[in-house]
Amino acid sequence: VLDLYNETTGIVTFLVGDNCSVNQKIATLLGWMRSHRLNLEVNRFLADYETEFVALNNLLTS
């Protein structure tokens, strides 16, 4: 995709991915309990950034 816009990976700050098939594959590989524990840990980690998420959501939906 970057090639389409004559850009390089040097402009990439972060990547976001939320793909149902990928999520299901990870859950299958981890097993139900480990997948649930991973989800809890990710949510705990992201909780520190709740203020930023709310501000971003407000910006994108206004």
Description:
There is one protein chain. The protein is mainly alpha-helical and 62 residues long. It has one domain. It has 3 helices and no strands. The longest helix has 16 residues, at 32-47. The two termini are 28 Å apart.
Structure summarized in a few sentences:
By secondary structure, this protein is mainly α.
List keywords for this structure.
62 residues, mainly alpha
Give the CA-CA distance, first to last residue.
Answer: 28 Å
Largest sheet: none
Number of strand segments: 0
Count of DSSP-assigned helices: 3
What is the string of helix and strand elements? Answer: HHH
Helical amount = 55-70%
Annotate the secondary structure layout.
Blueprint: H1 20-30, H2 32-47, H3 50-61
Helix pairs in contact: 1-2
